[in-house]
Amino acid sequence: MQLEPEDAFHALSVQNLPQLIAQAEQRGKQRALQNMAAVSAASPMALGGGQTDRAADYGAMNDEAFDRLVKRALRGQLRGSNSL
Fold first, then answer.
1. 42 close to 48: Cβ distance less than 8 angstroms
2. Average pLDDT over residues 24-29
């Protein structure tokens, strides 16, 4: 009796399928953790490591605060600034 390579592969795959799936899941989890660690190290703000910039609510600003903001913008002082 001769066994074809495809039949042998199929038999071994079916026999080891649960183990192969578990190994693939474990590798996926490890890669995800490594990627998260790399992103966290490269960008501390990306995973909530610090306070994010707050969006300005221009409609809620009083006139003086808005005028100060406009003047800072005209002087180019808002570029890269975290505070209003």
1. no
2. 91
